[in-house]
Amino acid sequence: MGDFNAVPSPNLIDSYRIIYPDSSSFTWKRDNSQEQSRIDIIWIPQQWGKKIIECFTEQLELVTKSDHKIIQLKIKKTWQIHLDREVQNNIGPKYNIKLMCDEKWMKFTTH
């Protein structure tokens, strides 16, 4: 989650818009109203755009008890993208949940 008022990075694209550039599909609708919007978005790097297999919305209100549809995105997994920056040791610390205490939870949440 992030700042809903922030402008998305210019390096990111709306995955749903790649597949459905002219769609008027909405992901949210206010009860008993005509008010609706497509406020739920999966942002992906531009270079992933050609790797999208499918992207769709699904109404699961009975399961989620939410007024938002779920967005699902499937991307080809037999590819590799080289980012501009090199990522070193991107594996975070490992925690054994059975051994956690307040101090360790605090360290975990601030990592």
TrEMBL record:
InterPro entries in the record: Endo/exonu/phosph_ase_sf
Protein name, as recorded: 3624_t:CDS:1
Lineage: Eukaryota, Fungi, Fungi incertae sedis, Mucoromycota, Glomeromycotina
